[in-house]
Amino acid sequence: MKQLLAASAAAMAIASPAAQTVEAETTLPTVTVSAERPARSLTVPDTEQATYDIQRTPGAVTLIPETSFKEGSARTVRDILGWVPGVVTQSRWGPDARLSIRGSGLSRNYGNRGINMLMDGIPINTADGLFDLFEIDPTAYRYVEVFKGANALRYGANALGGAINFVTPTGRDAFRFEGRVDVGSFGHRKGQASTGAAHGPWDYFVTGSAERFDGYREHSDGRQQRLSGNVGYAFSPTAETRFYLNANSWRSRLPGEVTKEAALRLPRVADPEFVRLDQQRNIDSLRLANKTTLLFGPTTLEFGLFAVRRHVMHPIYQWLDYRVRDHGGFVRAVDDRMLGAYRNRVVAGLNIHNGTIDNAQFINLPGGVKGDLVSSNVDKSENISVYVENSFFVRPDVALVAGAQFQHAVRDRRDRFLADGDQSGRRSYDDFSPKLGIVWDVGPDWQLFANVSRSAEVPTFDANTFASPASSDLSAQTATTYEVGTRSRRGGLAWELSLYRAQIRNELQCLTTAPWSPCTVVNADRTVHQGIEAAFGFAFLDSAFDQGDRFWLSATYTYNDFFFDGDANYGNNRLPGVPRHQVRAEILYRHPSGFYAGPNVEWMPKGFFADNANRLKVDSYSLLNFRIGLGNRLAGWSAYLEGRNLLDKRYISSTIVAGTATADSALFNPGTGRSVYAGLHYQW
């Protein structure tokens, strides 16, 4: 099985890292059910099966095999998702980043929202919708699935950005041992090791990593430890259960945002106020989950439970001490059968995700010392969603898709600090989101698709503060999205292309109003997010220097046309926080021996605004990178050397946003300067 998986992943990786398209199949990869124990897991599809499943979606989706992000420096989530068109990954500092799909959570200045983040199909968002990236270990996954917008309905996702699912190996497709060591600029060092095996009905997989970094900027050092594992038991060839464990610890100092001038002139200097208060972000988390899969002929039934505990110790403008307790469950059924002469595939499910945040805030004294209590609340979130999606094949190569989701959500806050509890409150939201689509297999390696869908996002607790009438009356963000596109792989040519337009009402904006304080969340009136997502891969000069070698040109282009639609305050101004154009391209030479080398560029040809009033703008930039590596598959080892921002360009990587900004507004995070990383990987 390992050899089959390696061959499949290697074939798809030829288009990596830019054109992450995978070959569209017209026949389902067969799963042989015999009296023997299964060769692969029922609960976790292998890369081949997941590739087929995702291609049944009538919209923009991407599957990223591990060969696309483990080959070089895999330090942050940007190393996994940075080549997927439509996905914006902007570094704030060190491992922290803003993650957005089609403008989701566009104005967040801390944390992220607007995407359903999943690990092995189980949510890692908090119950109110926020998510952190520190739990994502780029060296831990077999593949990653990206579902843009309502294309994530198969997981019950209902956010503008869609869903991202990080899938870990099992003992049935893992190496007995796999390890790597990475070192690099600014004190970066990381070690990771994993092991897995199958013994009769049992299989197990476990991976752990430890990382330290001094940071490019002053006051940005930190460390991370992550542990993930799963144990599966196959009751029979048609029944399997799997238990998951994830434990994570993150300790890091924060350099803070600075003015545009400071970011470009002194990019390594931290905001003095962040240093004075020794501002930090420290999180411990523990996640337990179970997923069981049963086969009943053409019907697959999945169900499971999960529980998460997080302790957030976060001295910033105040000393935040949050204890998060989330729990929930899910059930999902897939029925794929013939109805007379026609194939029909239906997916239906129920998700429950509830949680409590026990939060206390204290005065943060100089040096990061916890002072007197200033607020204390208990926040409860309840989320129930029911969804169904049906694909009816009017022809063997054409499927009509219809789906819908109903979501009920409650946000309840109990104020434990003020005597009269005047910051207590409760809101409930009910949203119905339909979807229609079509997918046409024009040929065995070429698809066309189109869809129209609705999405809804409920405010998170940092928005529904109940501290004032305005913060207690926020509406859910809703959108209607139209999409059309194509994807293909034909020998040495691969592409994916999507065009979309999302008409949004009540877009949730997180606007910075004062230095060193949290943003204020407001509903915009009408906004539009529309754009183009394109990826292209092309092989050329086959056997140029030796038999079987080749060059591969990869490129991605994202066009973000986001603007207000007749807003009373901002007219038709552009929405801040994201560039209008983004381009990444690479030319990579590969030799059959495992040697590869080539340059790549990141180009933002036009700047973007940092405020709704469009008064302060980030400058355009281009970065030159280079990577070289060598792998010996027979010996099981590989090594790489990678240089980033080789011309030491000074640029701004991300910004928090404001309603109206000035030159003195501290909104900007400098991009990392010239850096070099190297690593050694071994497996057997």
Key traits:
684 residues, mainly beta, 22-stranded antiparallel β-barrel, five-stranded mixed beta sheet, globular, disordered N terminus
Give the topology.
Blueprint: H1 2-13, H2 47-54, E1 61-65, H3 78-81, E2 87-93, E3 96-101, E4 116-119, E5 122-123, E6 143-148, E7 162-167, E8 178-184, E9 188-199, E10 202-213, E11 222-236, E12 239-253, H4 260-265, H5 272-276, E13 280-296, E14 299-315, E15 318-339, E16 342-365, E17 369-395, E18 398-415, E19 425-443, E20 446-457, E21 477-490, E22 493-505, E23 508-511, E24 520-523, E25 526-540, E26 550-564, E27 581-590, E28 596-604, E29 621-632, E30 637-644, E31 652-655, E32 668-670, E33 675-683
Parallel strand pairs: 4-7
Antiparallel strand pairs: 1-6, 2-3, 4-5, 6-7, 8-9, 8-33, 9-10, 10-11, 11-12, 12-13, 13-14, 14-15, 15-16, 16-17, 17-18, 18-19, 19-20, 20-21, 21-22, 22-25, 23-24, 25-26, 26-27, 27-28, 28-29, 29-30, 30-33, 31-32
